[in-house]
Amino acid sequence: MSEHEPTEVTREQAEEAVRTLLRWAGEDPTREGLLDTPRRVVKAYGDWFSGYQIDPGEYLRRTFEEVAGYDEMVVLRDIEFESHCEHHMAPIIGRAHVGYLPTSRVVGISKLARVVDAFARRFQVQEKMTSEIARCIQENLQPAGVAVVVDASHECMTTRGVHKRGVSMVTSQMLGAFREDARTRAEFLDFIGIHGGRR
Ligand SMILES: Nc1nc2c(ncn2[C@@H]2O[C@H](COP(=O)(O)OP(=O)(O)OP(=O)(O)O)[C@@H](O)[C@H]2O)c(=O)[nH]1
Ligand SMILES: [Zn+2]
């Protein structure tokens, strides 16, 4: 993971913001147990929000041509991810399922998971993330279609707010053949284990 290098905010300013939040919560940031906390929090943020330093399309530009005439659906399912909601900066924990219908080019499968991570490691709204993943694959790989389903739980509604545990949000973005052809879409949903709307 590359070190996070913000453009206009210094590490010291970011650490000071953490001290401010600690004081706001009623803590004393100078007590021994908290002395290293701002440094740790800023380091953690550098990891959680490293997606801003990445161009996800870059992962999809190295493709394999002519993989033995393979022209059927490719599906990578259960891609675990961690993200944060842009409303509360609270974790969004879930799984993404990504499918595409290659024309002449296929991509290394790990790259699909890297694309998911690059978008997840930003402040997100689930609908936006789902659409960004699908559009990035469509634009860079130019397959006959892309399908993305994201199933995630939002800690902003499990650990605070309405406190509804066990609730997950499911979003999907279908492009090309997956949008236009019900059978292609059904085959994808079957692959990822969603039948008639239930998993
Ligand atoms: N559609 C969508 N909503 C989200 C997502 N993440 C968080 N939210 C919702 O964003 C909304 C923000 O609502 P506000 O009323 O502005 O915030 P709030 O006062 O903290 O609301 P509560 O969460 O209901 O306590 C909440 O309903 C969240 O559940 C997301 O990825 N997609
Ligand atoms: Zn939220």
TrEMBL record:
GO cellular component annotations of the record: cytoplasm
Keywords: GTP-binding, Hydrolase, Metal-binding, Nucleotide-binding, One-carbon metabolism, Zinc
Reactions catalysed according to its record: GTP + H2O = 7,8-dihydroneopterin 3'-triphosphate + formate + H(+)
Similarity comment: family membership: Belongs to the GTP cyclohydrolase I family.
DNA damage listed as a keyword: no
Sites where the protein binds Zn(2+): 85, 88, 156
Entry protein name: GTP cyclohydrolase 1
One of the Pfam families matching this protein, by short name: GTP_cyclohydroI
Enzyme class label: hydrolase
Complex formation: Homopolymer.
GO biological process: one-carbon metabolic process; tetrahydrobiopterin biosynthetic process; tetrahydrofolate biosynthetic process
